[in-house]
Every structure is written in structure tokens, then in C-alpha cells.
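Project outcomes to date are best conveyed with an example. Our students and postdoctoral researchers have been running inverse folding experiments weekly, and each run begins with a structure described purely in C-alpha cells. The record below, which covers 318 residues, was selected by the lab manager from last quarter's runs and is presented without edits.
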């Protein structure tokens, strides 16, 4: 009988008044697991506990209730005096993906704690609420790079046109991590961001040029063909590789001459990417250069050249 009593909600409710914080934490956790309707108000009351760890447990327990009435209490915890409680609240609200959480989370972008601000930005990514865009754009001026990265990633996920210009500006940030995040976000924004991504092909950081080339392939805008052809001569082999792959994704015949020249690149990976791209474009002008590549020193390169030639032959026969 005693064990049965201890597994019931009444026993755990009585433990919320215990003097020891660890006991109250255990009670809060148990009530969240039980998920009974009677647990809502006691857990909400636990948000005023003198011990911050108990309040943090209460936030997570309320989130586990999955009750619409519980979320207003979780959102209210974003105003708690303890950093750990506000962090838990941001995490919990992000897990819901509920648009109703967007307002409180947007306010948390001004929190005194950088981790809370970053978590709020990440949580807003789940809500994808366009109403938070202006607050996110303002947060691009945050002094913490991790917050700015989180904000940029969220703006890319929301895909609101208002974020286009601020994200382009982020491409000029002195921090390469910010520029990388901006490239990825602009890629998610779609074809309208091609012009900005082309600018990123000239970044001093090879990793960013690589990301920009790959992003242009995903966007698939034909305006990127000439800049990508120029990138086939980049000093970095990874950039040349990404440019060749992107040109294969866009499949514009203007790239045939440049991709054919890339079949002689000193990097086998670039030669392979160029051969594969030519196979996708289906232009007979590539037949000669691809035939010459059948004598390539790299066995994989020869295989890809043969496969590309086969695609050309199939197209001619069709």
C-alpha cells in the first residue's frame, strides 16, 4: 500500500512542501511524468519556489504536460531571475513549435544572458513565425557571435523577404562563422539570393567560397553560371570541385567549354566532378574532352568519363 501511495499524485503533491530542494525537485519531476490534470496548478506554483533548480524542473515538467494552459506558465518563466530557468523555458518553448510562443521568444532575444538569447533564436526557428522577423533582424547586431549565428540560421529557415538585405550585409561580417551562416541562410532563401551568393564566391575564406558555390548549385539560378565557370580556376581545389558540381546541377550549356577544360585539373576530384557535370548537361561538344579523359591516371576519373560518354550516347540515340 505504501508503494502504491508513493506512485500516486497526492503523495508527490505533498512532497512539494518539503524543506529539502532535492525532494521538491523529485516531486516536480514525478508530477511531470504522471501528467495528470491536477498537476498543472501545483507545478505552476512551483515556478515561484525559492530554489532556482526547482523552478527549472517545474518549467520542464509543465512542458511535459503538453497542456495548452501550461504553456503560458512556461512562457512566463522567460522572465525568471535565474539564467538556468530562462534557458529551460526557451528550450521548452522551442520544442513545441507553437506560433503562440513566438512573441515571448522574440522578447527573449534581448535577454541579458547570451545563451538564453541564442536558445530563443533557435526556438523561433521551430515556430517559423514571420511576426518575429523584425526582432530577429535587430538581433543581428548582438555582441555575441553564437547568438548572431543562431539568428541568421533562423532567418534562413523562416525565408521572409525582409531578411534578404540584412543577410547580404552579414556576408561582410569580419567573423567567418557569421559569413558561413549567412551563405547557408541565403541558400535557403532561394533564387532571389543568387546575386549575394555570387559575391560570396570572392570571399577571402576558401571555406566560404566553397559553401557559396555549393549553395548556388542548390539555388539553381542561371545567373550564377559565369561566376561559377570563373570559380573553376579558384586556388582552392574544394572550391573548384563545388563549382563543377554546381554547374552540373544548373545544366547550362555555357559551362561546357569551362568544364571541359577542368577535365585537366590537377585534382582528380575536380576532374571527376567536371566529367559528371558534363554528363548531366548532355552537350556533344564534351565528347572529345571526355574521350581523352579515358586515359586519365586516376581509375575513378576514367570511370566517370566513361559514364558521361554513355549518357551522351544515350541522348544522341533517343
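After processing, the design step wrote out the following sequence:
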Amino acid at each position: 500500500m505504501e508503494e502504491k501511495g508513493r506512485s500516486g499524485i497526492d503523495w508527490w503533491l505533498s512532497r512539494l512542501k518539503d524543506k529539502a530542494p532535492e525532494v521538491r525537485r523529485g516531486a516536480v519531476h514525478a508530477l511531470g511524468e504522471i501528467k495528470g490534470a491536477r498537476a498543472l496548478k501545483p507545478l505552476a506554483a512551483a515556478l515561484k519556489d525559492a530554489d532556482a533548480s526547482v523552478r527549472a524542473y517545474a518549467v520542464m515538467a509543465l512542458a511535459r504536460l503538453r497542456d495548452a494552459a501550461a504553456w503560458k506558465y512556461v512562457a512566463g518563466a522567460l522572465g525568471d531571475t535565474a539564467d538556468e530557468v530562462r534557458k529551460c523555458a526557451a528550450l521548452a518553448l522551442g520544442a513545441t513549435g507553437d506560433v503562440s510562443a513566438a512573441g515571448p521568444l522574440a522578447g527573449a532575444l534581448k535577454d541579458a544572458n547570451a545563451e538564453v538569447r541564442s536558445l530563443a533564436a533557435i526556438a523561433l526557428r521551430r515556430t517559423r513565425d514571420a511576426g518575429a522577423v523584425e526582432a530577429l533582424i535587430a538581433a543581428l547586431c548582438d555582441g555575441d557571435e553564437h547568438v548572431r549565428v543562431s539568428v541568421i540560421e533562423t532567418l534562413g529557415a523562416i525565408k521572409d523577404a525582409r531578411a534578404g538585405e540584412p543577410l547580404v550585409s552579414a556576408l561582410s561580417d569580419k567573423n567567418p562563422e557569421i559569413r558561413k551562416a549567412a551563405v547557408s541562410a541565403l541558400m535557403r532563401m532561394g533564387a532571389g539570393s543568387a546575386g549575394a551568393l555570387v559575391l560570396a564566391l570572392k570571399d577571402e575564406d576558401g571555406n566560404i567560397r566553397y559553401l557559396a558555390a555549393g549553395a548556388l548549385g542548390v539555388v539553381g539560378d542561371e545567373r550564377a553560371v559565369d561566376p561559377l565557370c570563373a570559380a573553376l580556376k579558384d586556388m582552392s581545389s574544394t572550391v573548384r570541385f563545388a563549382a563543377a558540381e554546381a554547374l552540373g546541377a544548373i545544366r547550362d550549356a555555357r559551362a561546357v567549354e569551362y568544364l571541359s577544360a577542368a577535365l585537366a585539373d590537377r585534382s582528380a576530384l575536380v576532374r571527376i566532378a567536371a566529367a559528371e557535370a558534363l554528363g548531366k548537361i548532355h552537350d556533344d561538344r564534351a565528347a572529345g574532352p571526355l574521350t581523352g579523359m579515358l586515359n586519365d591516371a586516376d581509375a575513378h576519373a576514367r570511370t566517370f568519363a566513361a559514364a558521361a560518354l554513355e549518357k551522351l550516347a544515350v541522348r544522341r540515340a533517343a
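Confidence is low (pLDDT under 50) at residues 1-6. The two ends are 81 Å apart (CA to CA). The training component of this project remains on track.
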